[in-house]
UniProtKB/TrEMBL annotation:
Is involved in generating a small heat-stable compound (Nod), an acylated oligomer of N-acetylglucosamine, that stimulates mitosis in various plant protoplasts. Residues 70-253 form the NodB homology domain. This is Chitooligosaccharide deacetylase. It comes from Bradyrhizobium manausense. One of its GO terms (biological process) is carbohydrate metabolic process. GO terms for molecular function: hydrolase activity, acting on carbon-nitrogen (but not peptide) bonds; metal ion binding. Belongs to the polysaccharide deacetylase family. GO terms for cellular component: membrane. PANTHER family: CHITIN DEACETYLASE 1-RELATED, GLYCOSYL TRANSFERASE-RELATED. Keywords: Hydrolase, Metal-binding, Signal.
Amino acid sequence: MIGSSVVFRARSWTVLLLGSLTIASPAAFAADCPGHPDALGTSRTLVVDPHEHPRIGTMQYRETLPLRDHEVVLTFDDGPLPKYSNQVLQILAGECIKATFFIIGQQAKANPEGVRKLVAAGHTVGTHSMTHPLTMDRMPIDKAEAEINGGIEWTSAAMTDPSKLAPFFRIPGLMRADGVENYLISRGIQVWSADFPADDWRHVSPDRVYQLAIQRLEAKGKGILLLHDIQPRTVAALPKIIRDLKARGYRIVHVVPATADQPATPTTPVEWLLHPPTETTPIARWPQVPNFVFAQTATLPAPGLADLNAETAHQPRVLPRKTMAQADIASTLPAPGRDLFAIPEGSVEVLLSTTLSRRAATRLAMAAETPHAGKGKAGRIQARRTAASSAPKHATQAKGTASRPTRLATSLKKRA
Ligand SMILES: [Zn+2]
């Protein structure tokens, strides 16, 4: 209390300086990670209210978490699966990183201890359905509700304190549907998409997972990274991802839901947009959508191409708008007449002037000549052609085959 009164009495520039030192100093994060002086750490906790921002993640939605530049939120889906989830937990513990886990009900039922470990380590735990169906975009709503509720039931049943379950849900395979989202929102549950995946469910190397995670993060500058704690390649890639995040100056943000005791972090609406529009950049950027293709549909529950259909309701807002001038041009310019594009039937001259290859044009021209072959000029051309084709290749080239169609066209014009 004494310290704070001193700061308040100090001149404003001193306050600013102290503030910026506190935010920028990485030593402060490492100090929070005893025994791991080089840890990346968790820079801050962001408290969010699902009621205020029900859908997040620019892979599908307009809004995403109100992160500052170079802030990252790590998320892990589909666990817990002891063999790999425990390794992920260990890696995160060694870096003092807090993440968000989206649990499958069946996994929680089979490995309740795995859920308790996540809670004990201080991570945020949300849910990811009961059986991970990749059809929530088209299944009857009562079935979708049963999937949602089953996942919540078994995940909270695995917890010593069920109130630790966050009202966060990620739709399996990101197969969103209005009905599913509306049901979740009506229950005060926040729908989490992501800002970028690292394709760790596909048959790619751990190094590729690392590269994609960093490349896609660098492209957006901040955001929610989608990973899976049930994949050996994710376990292998994670230490390198974390080391590189630190080297590049990224900071980890831990997200928790608002409660009666812990109100939401104050934010402004514009902070929930990845790239808020500014006066100098009137045209919003279209979010980069990674190629999301299944490699292992049978064994690896994960997003598919259809996931990436950005919510149609939001699309017009990010597409550049037509100016009044553009609209006027469209209505005043006359449409070209049909006959402008018509090609007269059998017109070899026209064909020769189009993109047809010279060889094809020549064949057409010769066919037109056939009835008169052996007589007059056309006959002479036929004879020349026969001689040319039987001549050595270099001789044909030397004579210049390119000039022949032109001569043919001229002769045909004279006949017309
Ligand atoms: Zn999943």
